C-alpha cells in the first residue's frame, strides 16, 4: 500500500512540475494560436450562435439595426469643431492638449508624441511598451506600438505590434477622449494578426497633473489580448513622467503589473 501511495505522490509532483515548467507565456501562446481545448469549444459555440443568428434575422431586426446605427453615429463622431494644439499641456496656464482658434498663444495643427513604459509583475514577469502617436490633424491620428512580455521561469517572451487609427471624439480644454480601430500582429511563435479596438481618456486636473485610462482588445483566433491601463502623469513642459496600474489578459493568462515611463511631445 505504501509503495503505491509513494508512487502516486511522485506522479502528482511530476505533473505539477511539468505544468509549472511550461510557463504562463507558453499557455498564452497556445491560446492565441488556437491550439488549446478552450479554443475548439469556443469555436463550436460561435458556430451555433451564427446559425441561430442567420435564422432569426428578419424585418424587425433590420429596422432595429438601422435605428441603432443612425443613433450611434452622433455618439461616435459628435460635432467636428475646429481645434488646435497647444505646444504642450499647461504651456500657457491651466489647460490640456487642445485649444480653440481664438487663443492668443502659439498653436499647432499637428502633434507627435513618443512614449515608453516599463512594467513589472513581481519576479515573475516584466515588459516594455513603446508607442508612437502622430495626430496629423487635431481630429484624427495614427498610433504604432510594440508591447513585449518577458517571463523569468522558464525563460520566455511574447511580443505584439499594433497599428491603430484613432478618432479624437472629445477635444476640450481639460479633457481628451478617443476611440480607435486597427490590427495587432502577435509574433514570438504565434504569428497571427487580429482586429483591434481601443478607447481612452485623459483628464487634465491641475498644473502639472493629469490622469488617463485606456482599454484595448485584440481578437486573435477564438481568444484575445486585453489591456487596461490607469495612469497618472506629471508634466514637465514637453516631457511627462507617468506611472500606474497595468492589467493584461493574454488568452487565459492574467498579468497585473505596475508601470512607469516617460512621454515626449514634439
TrEMBL record:
InterPro entries: OMP/PagP_B-barrel
Alphabetically ordered keywords of this record: Signal
Domain of life the protein comes from: Bacteria
SUPFAM superfamilies xrefs: OMPA-like
Residues in the signal sequence: 1-21
Keyword Signal (UniProt): yes
Record-given protein name: Outer membrane protein with beta-barrel domain
Amino acid at each position: 500500500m505504501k509503495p503505491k501511495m509513494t508512487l502516486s505522490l511522485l506522479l502528482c509532483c511530476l505533473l505539477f512540475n511539468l505544468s509549472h515548467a511550461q510557463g504562463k507565456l507558453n499557455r498564452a501562446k497556445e491560446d492565441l494560436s488556437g491550439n488549446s481545448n478552450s479554443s475548439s469549444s469556443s469555436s463550436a459555440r460561435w458556430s451555433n450562435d451564427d446559425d441561430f443568428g442567420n435564422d432569426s434575422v428578419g424585418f424587425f431586426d433590420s429596422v432595429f439595426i438601422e435605428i441603432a446605427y443612425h443613433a450611434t453615429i452622433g455618439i461616435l463622431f459628435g460635432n467636428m469643431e475646429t481645434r488646435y494644439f497647444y505646444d504642450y499641456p499647461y504651456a500657457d496656464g491651466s489647460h490640456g492638449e487642445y485649444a480653440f482658434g481664438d487663443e492668443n498663444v502659439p498653436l499647432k495643427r499637428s502633434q507627435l508624441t513618443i512614449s515608453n513604459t516599463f512594467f513589472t509583475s513581481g519576479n515573475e514577469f516584466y515588459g516594455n511598451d513603446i508607442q508612437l502617436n502622430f495626430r496629423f490633424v487635431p481630429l484624427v491620428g495614427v498610433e504604432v506600438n510594440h508591447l513585449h512580455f518577458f517571463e523569468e521561469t522558464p525563460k520566455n517572451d511574447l511580443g505584439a505590434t499594433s497599428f491603430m487609427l484613432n478618432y479624437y471624439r472629445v477635444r476640450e480644454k481639460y479633457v481628451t477622449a478617443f476611440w480607435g480601430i486597427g490590427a495587432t500582429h502577435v509574433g514570438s511563435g504565434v504569428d497571427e494578426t487580429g482586429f483591434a479596438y481601443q478607447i481612452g481618456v485623459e483628464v487634465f486636473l491641475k498644473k502639472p497633473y493629469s490622469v488617463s485610462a485606456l482599454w484595448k482588445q485584440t481578437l486573435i483566433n477564438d481568444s484575445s489580448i486585453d489591456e487596461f491601463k490607469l495612469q497618472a502623469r506629471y508634466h514637465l513642459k514637453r516631457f511627462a513622467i507617468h506611472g500606474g496600474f497595468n492589467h493584461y489578459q493574454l488568452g487565459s493568462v492574467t498579468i497585473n503589473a505596475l508601470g512607469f515611463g516617460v512621454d515626449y511631445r514634439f
